[in-house]
Write a structure and sequence with these properties.
heterodimer, A: alpha+beta, twelve-stranded mixed sheet, 9 helices, elongated, disordered C terminus, B: mainly alpha, flat
């Protein structure tokens, strides 16, 4: 026999004719002998009526036109955020490019199996490379770095595009949502003069920092070499170990190099928790190649040629790249 | 019956923003009812609802389950309401005289505080019950359609609605008792 709680839980289904015949009879029988549930049913109908009347009072489609107008207008994009994100990508690109050469160095020193290849040979091997193309996470982000003049450009998440030419003191950003190219004002130097741009050599750009680190390991970073295979191809894998916050020794970067061509092909790096898009995304994957040419302007990255150029109010007092050079210059040079 | 939420969202993401109108028209009443229950300032209700719908549009690429559009949009509304409250808090810190002067200079009327006991009671329901009531009444969906949208069995939805009505009735009765009590005291 049905009790009051069971009966009251069924009252909506009862009122809306959603019960089967047997359940309906059970509710009828309970209501016939229970005054409390009959009262409940009446009060429930009253609440339902209030809700129906209230809904009618809101009226139809009053917001739709305004919302549709609002979404048709270009939305302001926080360009500072885009710029910050690109600065991060740029830093990573430099780090990844440096890893390329670290792999060469390690590969040749560790895999060389007796051959007397020196760092100078590696320098020679990459000297004719003009561009590094790095594709992250299956092409979600892409970065090109010109090794001869320091141009850096790429495509990030949400199809945001950046084109940075330090030599020309030009930095441009584009986001498809705004449809405009935002140009940072030229960097203002302390003495008011723009110094002549001297690009880093591939050697300086890619090897120098790691060369120093190999000779003087910092912070307990160690390297292990392993034989590995990807898609049936024999590669050498270098695991970089460091200690995490709990003191545990963990791999934080892996780099694969092709012993035949002596060039790196792939790198993975462990993501910090705040960089992960999902809890199980632990690594970011970068794939390298060395094309003969790269994008020559922001338009080569899919930006429409008729996009308007607007000046941003992001102020820079000194380019990051120069700051980086100063700190990586060896003492006494 | 028009296109499903999923079809509309896929349309928006494929470059047909007009499809969003269907979603706005389908859910605006539920959204306005919810916002009314949580925002007292009458002038801000439509503004908050509009801001929520615009933000939801631009966040569509991040919506994982298109069938959960309405529930997801209510969470965006919560964020917008919170931001609105923080802004109000900042405004409240302004000196009273400065505010009056600013209002006089701007020629704006003082803001009216609206009281809507029914919508406040709906907004105060536990989340699952609130969604069921908003979809059933303000979204004008059948119980079976609500069940499909929320991924719940029909029996669960009707049971939740029964309990939600009982909760609403209790809250509204309590409020009217308090009001009666206040009146008696004044007399």
């Amino acid at each position: 026999m049905m009790n009051c709680i069971e009966c009251q839980d069924q009252l909506v289904a009862y009122a809306e004719n959603l019960l089967n015949e047997q359940h309906r009879q059970e509710v009828d029988a309970h209501l016939a002998r229970c005054m409390a549930c009959r009262n409940e049913k009446e009060q429930m109908a009253q609440v339902r009526q209030w809700l129906v009347e209230d809904c009618q009072s809101i009226g139809p489609a009053s917001l739709a036109d305004r919302v549709m107008q609002a979404i048709a207008r270009p939305q302001p994009v926080n360009m500072n955020r885009v710029v910050v994100r690109w600065r991060q990508i740029r830093w990573r690109a430099a780090a990844a490019a440096a890893m390329v050469l670290l792999a060469c160095v390690l590969g040749l020193l560790l895999v060389g199996s007796g051959s007397s290849i020196t760092l100078a040979d590696v320098q020679a091997a990459i000297a004719d490379k003009t561009w590094v193309h790095i594709s992250y996470d299956g092409g979600q982000r892409e970065v090109w770095v010109c090794l001869t003049d320091g141009r850096l450009c790429g495509r990030g998440e949400g199809s945001a595009v950046a084109y940075i030419d330090e030599a020309a003191n030009v930095r441009r950003w584009y986001h498809p949502r705004t449809g405009v190219i935002v140009e940072d004002p030229p960097t203002v130097y302390p003495d008011g003069k723009v110094p002549a741009w001297k690009p880093l050599t591939p050697w300086e750009y890619l090897v120098q920092g790691y060369e120093a680190k190999m000779q003087n390991p910092v912070g307990g970073v160690t390297v292990e070499k392993h034989e590995d295979k990807i898609d049936g191809k024999a590669l050498v894998r270098f695991d970089l170990y460091a200690k995490d916050a709990t003191g545990k020794r963990i791999v934080y970067k892996r780099l694969w190099a092709d012993p035949a061509t002596r060039m790196p092909v792939r790198m993975t790096a462990r993501l910090q928790p705040e960089e992960r898009k999902s809890p199980d995304q632990e690594w970011t994957v970068a794939v390298y190649d060395f094309p003969q040419t790269g994008p020559s302007s922001i338009y080569d990255l899919g930006v429409p040629r008729d996009a308007k150029i607007v000046k941003s109010d992001v102020k820079q007092t000194k380019p990051d790249a120069l700051r980086g050079r100063e700190t990586t210059q060896p003492a006494g040079k | 019956m028009g296109p499903t939420d999923k079809e509309c969202i896929e349309g928006c993401l494929s470059g047909y923003p007009e499809q969003y109108r269907v979603l706005v028209e389908r859910y605006e009443a539920g959204l306005v009812a919810y916002v009314t229950g949580r925002v007292k300032d009458r002038a801000c209700i439509e503004e908050t609802a509009q801001e929520t719908l615009v933000r939801a549009y631009f966040a569509l690429p991040r919506l994982k389950n298109p069938d959960a559009f309405f529930v997801w949009m209510l969470r965006i509304a919560d964020h917008v309401i919170q931001e609105h409250r923080r802004a109000q808090g900042r405004r409240a810190k302004l000196d009273q005289a400065t505010r009056q002067m600013a209002q006089q200079m701007a020629g704006s009327a003082p803001r009216h505080e609206a009281s809507h006991p029914l919508r406040e009671a709906v907004a105060g329901l536990p989340e699952g019950y609130r969604q069921v009531v908003l979809l059933r009444h303000y979204g004008e969906l059948s119980c079976a359609e609500v069940a499909r949208r929320l991924g719940k069995p029909l029996g669960t939805v009707t049971k939740m609605l029964s309990r939600a009505y009982a909760m609403l009735r209790e809250v509204l009765q309590d409020q009217s008792t308090v009001r009666r009590g206040e009146r008696t005291k004044v007399q």
